[in-house]
Design goal:
The chain contains 11 helices and 23 strands. It has helices spanning about 70-75, 95-105, 120-130, 145-155, 180-200, 270-275, 325-335, 360-375, 400-410, 420-435, 450-455, and strands at about 1-10, 15, 30-35, 65, 80, 85-90, 115, 140, 160-165, 200-210, 225-230, 240-245, 255-260, 265, 285-295, 295-310, 315-320, 345-350, 380-385, 385-390, 395, 415-420, 445. β17, α7 and β18 (about 345-350) form a beta-alpha-beta unit. The longest helix is centred in the middle third of the chain and has 18 residues, at about 180-200. The chain is globular, with a radius of gyration of 26 Å. The mean pLDDT is about 90. It binds thymidine-5'-diphosphate and magnesium ion.
Amino acid sequence: MAKRIFICQSCGAEQHKWMGQCPDCREWNTISEQVIETSARAGNNGQIIATTPITDIRRETSPRQSTFIEELDRVLGGGLVGDSAILIGGDPGIGKSTLLLQAAGKLAGKHRVLYVTGEESTQQVHLRGERIDALHDNLHLLSACELESIMRTVDNARPSMVIIDSIQTLVTSRLSSAPGTVSQVRDCAAALIQQAKRSGFALILVGHVTKDGTLAGPRVLEHMVDAVLYFEGDRGHAHRILRAVKNRFGPAGEIGVFEMTDRGLIGIRDASRMFLAERAKNTPGSAVLACLEGTRPLLLEVQALIAPTVYATPKRSAVGLDVGRVAMLTAVLERRIGLPLSQHDVYINVAGGARISEPAADLAVLMAMISAYQERPIAHDIAVFGEVGLTGEVRPVGQPEARVREAASMGFRHLIIPRDNKERLHKIEQKARFAKTASEAIQLTAIKHLSEAAQVSLTK
Ligand code: TYD
Ligand code: MG
């Protein structure tokens, strides 16, 4: 039996008739008609199924399999879980296929791995595999796009891990729509995820991302899979950040840092060193932030440039930070510290192409701006963290110890921190003083208001 439905290709909502604008996501010209095959399931009134008291549920600890790529294991929360489904998203060319082929090559040492390539030929994958040392006879390639054939092949080959590169290339014969449309992506993914749970293999789906940062169409996949990882980074830099935005088996928000080399992706353990590598010391408009990505402390350089405006309304612009937040902080600086910024453009940049979403970055952004405006550099051994509110008050942030420790290990000797974080840190400071010589001790300056920051940080 065939049924006609109308699906928005942007948000996946189903409508009863064709419309010019999707009433759910308000996008124009995104609704397209599709014919689906439905099998008649008449006469099923349901049946009674036994329920289980929650206390009787046996806890099964799913064994985790290391991917032998430390940074990937960290993002996954300790390794791959047997029958989990993982979505890896990112811009085309960011390194998704490279990372997965590397992992597949390593896992093939212990397990049978099937790599389904819908985008590149098997020759191309082989060529890349050679370069990144991923050739192994337990790693099988399959160049195919038809879902039904892939599923039968998987049933026959019984691999422990299946990689689909990418989900947007698959088609099921059940639907008439083109590959990459929301309904195709959703149906193919759902069928594969079910098969993974049933047969007990780990499934990794690659999904390309659109300009606005969401998966093209398959945003609908995010809630179907167990973990969603995004690959970030820009073309101008060699480093890549893999971020878990959802993880049913581990903490979300965890990141892994990689560098793209001519032999594939290499995990970077001391990411702070890499991000601070090009920092010019003693230049105005630069502040070092001790931030936290997942459970991982990371030092990043925040840069500010302030210039008289030539526009009617001054520009507020930000790379690597939310521009709305920067506009808000600019207003705080104007009203609470009295910097006359209404005639100035403000540009903020997180050096090295990193992206920050933590409010703990506020203080660093503001101090970089003050330093830029006054053209006085911040002392080179100062690092900061703290959220700043609308009245200019400096608020405490999570895990100050981890931040201080990271800064200390990177050679910073003076930290400017929120006063309410100081209590817990007192012990660290004490320890540091006793453990090391006086010159190596960490000095903590705890502040309650933004106005105190400028006084302690700027060089004469
Ligand atoms: P790729 O993994 O194909 O990206 P995606 O699957 O996300 O689209 O990455 C391709 C880019 O990576 C390409 O620009 C070449 C580069 N690259 C290297 O620099 N070194 C390598 O060893 C490999 C395999 C790729
Ligand atoms: Mg690819």
